[in-house]
Sequence to fold (280 residues):
Amino acid sequence: MKDEEVLALLERLERDAPPPDGVLTYGHEPQQFGHLRLPKAETAGPGPYPLVIVIHGGYWRARYDLGYLGAACGALARAGLATWNIEYRRIGDPGGDWPGVFEDVAAAADFVRTLAQPYPLDLTHVITLGHSSGGHLALWLAARSRLPEHSPLWQPDPLPLAGAIAIAGVLDLRRAWELRLSDNATGLLLGGTPGEFPERYDTASPYEALPLGVRQVLLHGDADTNVPLELSKRYAERARARADDITFETLPGSGHFEPVNPATAEWRAVERWALALSGR
Fold:
């Protein structure tokens, strides 16, 4: 897709999104909020509901926000899953690089425990689902429990996850830097090269953290020109070699955005796996 076509699609997906049931803040920065959507009790029952933590992409840049995944969140809610579509500081925002991006998504995930007090959420069936660089963050959240205590991002009790789904995920940050993806967004995110900051790349890349010990699903279109299919393939091969529980599904003929558009055939694979991992 051309840039103007992408922007038109993202705007349409945002317009098609049902309004959230709550817009809630998990911190004090303007970007530290999320949209909570719940299934309708008359069709899904009273709950508690499995929860999907949804993380948008855009190569970690402030130009893109959570709005375009609102339609996908609405579709998941209609299928019986609650969604927590999170915003976070990105490149271009104050603090929107290392380590702010990671601090924010971790705080947003752990805030689910607070959300479960007034809302009917099942904390035993929480999964992450991310698109593009959001796919990287979805799997990074699944890897958080493996961080060493000396890491600046270590937390003593991260929210347990039942699974993680990456759609066209940027899962290997060293390889992304080698390919200079999106004008070397990885270097901007982590402040420099793998040679300059090896520990940051180790800490931030799900590829380096394998095995995660969490059920993982990778979905990736073989016509994706934004994030190379190679990244998911390499990740899946390494995960299997390390005995992780992973499924890698190639979406034939799909580009980068079809899997997050509920009007497409590719979306059915996303919804199917979200239901399966959340135990619905």
About this structure: The first helix runs from residue 3 to 16. The first strand starts at residue 22 and ends at 25. The beta strands are 22-25, 33-37, 49-55, 82-86, 121-131, 163-167, 216-221, 246-251. The chain has a mean pLDDT of 96.
